[in-house]
């Protein structure tokens, strides 16, 4: 059985995360620590932080979500980009790790008590790319009913994340979810047009209309 890019990402992330659970040095060397970037130019932390997680639950939800949506996005990328689909998918995931944390870095670059970790930003990028490409797919929060179409779920999730981010408090980096999601959608829209001359937004509208017609809502 051929491994998908998603499967490889999941395997590598799980192995590194499990290793970091029992090794404080790995944890400290890889975690996103803004002053280490601004003071010591350790830019790799934008990417390495996506390989470690706070605990098993954090790791499970991120990798489960990626495993559920990743193959869908890989298939859609193959249809859009052809033979370069896998490379484009990997590029989106890696780039989302960086861009999802960029606002966090700007805000906390001198915050010596701030740290962030996890692949949530990149996973959000994959999920929202998938929802943009297949808006009729029905999802629930952590795949728990009720299930609603992606074109309704996406703005609800983004709106709630923005609310939680502005409210503050807690240990979840909602900003990474928001900017990861936005990056994933922009990546698909821009690159599909530039490289494959595919209008993703037009296709999105058509698929939403088809879904509404199928459900008898229009």
Short summary:
The protein has a single domain, classed as Rhomboid-like fold (Up-down Bundle), CATH 1.20.1540. Helices cover 71% and strands 5% of the residues. It contains ten helices and two strands; from the N terminus they run αααααααββααα.
Q: Give the CATH H-level superfamily.
A: Rhomboid-like
Order of helices and strands: HHHHHHHEEHHH
Q: Tell me, what's the shape?
A: globular
Oligomer category: single chain
Low-confidence residue ranges: none
Please state the second-level CATH architecture: Up-down Bundle
Number of domains: 1
Radius of gyration: 18 Å
Output the CATH class name.
Mainly Alpha
Give the overall pLDDT as a whole number.
94
- According to DSSP, the number of beta strands is 2
Question: Which fold name fills CATH's third level, the topology?
Answer: Rhomboid-like fold
Output the strand order for the largest sheet. 1-2
Q: Give the CA-CA distance, first to last residue.
A: 43 Å
Structural class: mainly alpha
Strand content bin = under 5%
Describe the main β-sheet briefly.
2 strands, antiparallel
Structure annotation, total helices: 10
Helix content: over 70%
């Amino acid at each position: 059985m051929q491994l998908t890019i998603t499967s490889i990402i999941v395997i590598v992330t799980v192995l590194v995360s499990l290793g970091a659970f029992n090794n404080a040095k790995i944890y400290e060397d890889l975690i996103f620590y803004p002053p280490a970037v601004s003071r010591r130019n350790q830019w790799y932390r934008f990417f390495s932080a996506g390989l470690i997680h706070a605990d098993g639950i954090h790791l499970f939800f991120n990798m489960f979500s990626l495993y559920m949506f990743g193959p869908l996005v890989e298939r859609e990328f193959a249809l859009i980009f052809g033979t370069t689909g896998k490379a484009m998918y990997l590029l989106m995931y890696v780039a989302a790790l960086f861009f999802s944390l960029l606002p966090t870095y700007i805000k906390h670059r001198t915050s010596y008590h701030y740290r962030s970790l996890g692949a949530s930003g990149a996973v959000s990028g994959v999920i929202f790319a998938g929802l943009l490409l297949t808006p009729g797919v029905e999802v629930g929060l952590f795949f728990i009913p009720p299930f609603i179409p992606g074109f309704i779920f996406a703005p609800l999730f983004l709106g709630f994340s923005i609310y939680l981010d502005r409210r503050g408090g807690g240990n979840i980096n909602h900003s990474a979810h928001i900017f990861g999601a936005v990056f994933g959608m922009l990546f698909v829209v821009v690159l599909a047009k530039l490289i494959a001359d595919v209008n993703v937004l037009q296709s999105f509208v058509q698929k939403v209309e088809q879904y509404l017609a199928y459900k008898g809502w229009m």
